Amino acid sequence: MQSCIRPKLFGQSNIVVALRKIFHTLNEKKKMEAEGGSGAAAVNSEEDFNESIESHDDAGNEKFPYLCRHAYVHTDDNEFISYAPGSKTGKIGLWIGPKLTLEESYFEMEITDYGVEGKIHIGVSPWNHPLGSHIGYTVGSIGLCVGNGHILKDCEMATDTIRVKIAREYDRVGCGLRFEQCYDSAEEGDDQESYVLVYFTLNGKEIGSLWTQLPIGGFHPAVSMQSPGEEVRVMLGLPGHPMQDDDEMVVDSTEDDWRRLSDVHQRGQILEYCGKGQSIADVGLAQARHPLNTTHHYFEIEIADPGENCYIAIGLTRKDYPDRRNPGWNKGSIGYHADDGKIFMGSGKGEPFGPRCHKGDRMGCGIYFSPDYISEYDSDCEPAADSPSQAGCSNGKDVELIDLTVDTSGSEDDEWWNHQGKVKCGTKVEVFFTRNGKTVGMRQVRIPKGGFYPTVGMLGLNEKVRVDLRPLTG
């Protein structure tokens, strides 16, 4: 299934890429007509492929630094590579580039077309990698399958790596070498064995690596593919990707910030809706891993792409909030919706609250905790009835209390609630919402047992937001 992600392509617009594809298709059609419909000119037969290997035994070294091997793919100056099996449907397309060196030890590909099945692999291999095999499925090669996120070595899943994130269309996937150590053989007098660290990146973030012995002749960048429509753009000659220490990787990574992502794709601070977007049952939900507290009491989203209708919502939900429900629609939640400016509080019926929001607007949500507030997130006891922090007032004024355990929406999770019982709620807090840094309004609610979790809901195709779970202000 193709992703809805559509960022720019290394500084080029999507229009340029589309025009390339159109011109390429027209040129191929003309070639086929001139050859009597014998097949696409980009397709190599197995005989032609083997002959090309024999005629370039030294390819990839200093004598032939820019020669590449390929079969069942079309290459556009070794930049755009697309699957082209001709009449031999199901054949594995293979491309192998010039040898990676200490100075140019890293390369990237951008998935310009995910194809029908997304059977694209990236990795490194010896120059004589056999025809008919994916990268990582033969001895001496290491590959990452973008379709399932598995790293494979010598036809086996690498045991010293974990399953990494699955790549999607227009993601940038990289592979490189770190020539960092050489280990002497156990027996004196044996030749020295060189080992390198093969690592993979996704959109600039390192996602997996493993040590392996450097083959005679070195490693070459390689890409393989197998389903119709697949196309990538390759960037060669890049310097090595800098190593990140453990502390940097923890600080820079936002993947662990999310407890649940339902029909939402996450890339750094960007969340993008990837559901069907056909009915209210297709809501995409992103719930943060940790609830708001007195240290981090506020978060924001910026509408990067409103889609067609800006069906985007920001709010707070209980820990076990159901999937496919916008914040505010169900018990134990409250949400401010961008498309109509309404606030929803444990009910499918909203009420007028603030202005509508559009592309570039920043929507924020936070909690005003009282000075004597004590976190009950990890407590099994109910809050004391006479707790000073439960006073039904704010700034000396009476404020209407909204008990989020009450639901008059007739929502789809009523059966679940009848089985589980009501949400246990404790301390009363003030939840407030902002738009572009200015407070829109607030409501006083009882915080659910376990706390309130930052939550983002989306329902329209191409909707995309940038999230800051810990802004400096708020």
UniProtKB/TrEMBL annotation:
<dbReference type="InterPro" id="IPR050618">
    <property type="entry name" value="Ubq-SigPath_Reg"/>
</dbReference>
<feature type="domain" description="SPRY">
    <location>
        <begin position="294"/>
        <end position="473"/>
    </location>
</feature>
<dbReference type="Pfam" id="PF00622">
    <property type="entry name" value="SPRY"/>
</dbReference>
<dbReference type="InterPro" id="IPR043136">
    <property type="entry name" value="B30.2/SPRY_sf"/>
</dbReference>
<dbReference type="InterPro" id="IPR044736">
    <property type="entry name" value="Gid1/RanBPM/SPLA_SPRY"/>
</dbReference>
<dbReference type="InterPro" id="IPR003877">
    <property type="entry name" value="SPRY_dom"/>
</dbReference>
<feature type="domain" description="SPRY">
    <location>
        <begin position="102"/>
        <end position="240"/>
    </location>
</feature>
<dbReference type="InterPro" id="IPR013320">
    <property type="entry name" value="ConA-like_dom_sf"/>
</dbReference>
<dbReference type="InterPro" id="IPR035783">
    <property type="entry name" value="SPRYD3_SPRY"/>
</dbReference>
<protein>
    <submittedName>
        <fullName>SPRY domain-containing protein 3-like</fullName>
    </submittedName>
</protein>
